[in-house]
Write a structure and sequence with these properties.
InterPro entries: CBO0543-like. This protein has 162 residues and is mainly alpha-helical. The protein is built from six helices and two strands; from the N terminus they run H-H-E-H-H-E-H-H. Strands 1-2 form a two-stranded antiparallel sheet. The chain is globular.
Length: 162
């Protein structure tokens, strides 16, 4: 199922993303990749969640998520991001709901495990933070970078990595 999501997101990104803006989106793509690599390094021996696949090894699955799924998601998210605040909140809600439902399906079909107290509720909270932070990074990079520090430290403290 994880490979299906990868294929779908990659197809959607290749087909529908606004590639004429890739240079604008590139720093934000690097931002999400960097944060996920940071997460992977911190939790390498004791993760909060783990995607599972019967077809490919865990390390390869992590690489696919970091370097294909997240960049594809980011470029699609930024390609159609609205400008009016009312529409922005609806847009964010749609992405949060879509990713939450997808993750829940992964969990129900045993394609994802949670550890150290992480659960679906924490994932929803994470998505509520992640999508606005992606947009903030795109619009005001220094602010997003500064805000990433307390969010990261907060999650590390809550889940006993500090």
């Amino acid at each position: 199922m994880n490979l299906s999501l990868t294929g779908i997101l990659l197809f959607l990104a290749l087909r529908y993303a606004k590639w004429s803006k890739w240079r604008e989106f590139y720093p934000t793509i690097l931002y999400i990749v960097m944060l996920n690599l940071h997460y992977s390094y911190i939790v390498k021996t004791s993760p909060l969640w783990k995607y599972k696949s019967s077809l490919i090894p865990q390390e390869m699955l992590d690489i696919i998520i970091i370097f294909i799924v997240e960049p594809s998601m980011t470029i699609l998210f930024l390609s159609y991001h609205p400008l009016q605040w009312r529409r922005i909140f609806l847009y964010w809600a749609a992405w949060i709901i879509a990713f939450s439902i997808t993750e829940y399906i992964f969990f129900l079909t045993d394609r994802m495990d949670y550890f150290r107290g992480w659960n679906m509720g924490w994932s929803v909270i994470f998505y509520i933070i992640m999508f606005p932070m992606l947009y903030l990074h795109y619009k005001k990079t220094p602010v997003a970078l500064l805000l990433s520090i307390p969010f990261t430290i907060g999650f590390m403290w809550i889940f006993d990595y500090l």
